[in-house]
Amino acid sequence: GGPTISIFLKPPGTIPPGGSTTICCSCECDNGNFVLFRGGHRVNTLPRLRGSRAEFSISNVTQGDTGGYNCHYVDGDTVLARSETVEVRVHEFRLPEPVLSVLPGHNVAAGTDVLFRCTLAHPRAGCVLYLEGWVTEFKHLSNGEVYKLSRVHKGYEGHYSCQCFVKNASFEWSAVSKTLDLMVR
């Protein structure tokens, strides 16, 4: 019951210290306000409102900004809806930028199989494929592994990017790849 709030990071991915991200919350709701919480505590950031969407910008991020964020839609003291939790991760980028490629191309007919590949010049890297608008990673991949999306439809349209990491004593992250737009006709 009740309205649901969707939440996602724009752009998605792990952020370097000093970088920025926007937490987007949207809801088909009325007569209320969006409030951002981190780990159960209210964050005093006012959103920029765009129709049914609230955008909370976090700039010049530090380790102190890491954690799980969620949105509440409130009317006074009453919480009308709350979103899932989106994780903000902050790490130095120590690895180069990976390359995201798509076959047969950026613009495909519905029903086509689409192949994504994220490649980084590092033998032991794991990679993450992001689709903007998702609350979590779209897919975990090995470096250079081909990921097949079978029989795509309009729901797979959007902005894809990838990012890679190497797990040593700690995680080392790459920058985020250039964004690739997939259109399904």
UniProtKB/TrEMBL annotation:
Name recorded for this polypeptide: IGSF1 protein
Pfam families assigned to the protein according to its UniProt record, in alphabetical order: ig
Limits of the Ig-like domain: 3-87
The entry's keywords: Disulfide bond, Immunoglobulin domain, Signal
Domain of life assignment: Eukaryota
InterPro entries the UniProt entry points to: Ig-like_dom, Ig-like_dom_sf, Ig-like_fold, Ig-like_Receptors_ImmuneReg, Ig_sub, Immunoglobulin_dom
GO biological process: cell surface receptor signaling pathway; immune response-regulating signaling pathway
The gene coding this protein: Igsf1_0
Signal found in the keyword field: yes
Taxonomic lineage of the native organism: Eukaryota, Metazoa, Chordata, Craniata, Vertebrata
Annotated SMART domains: IG
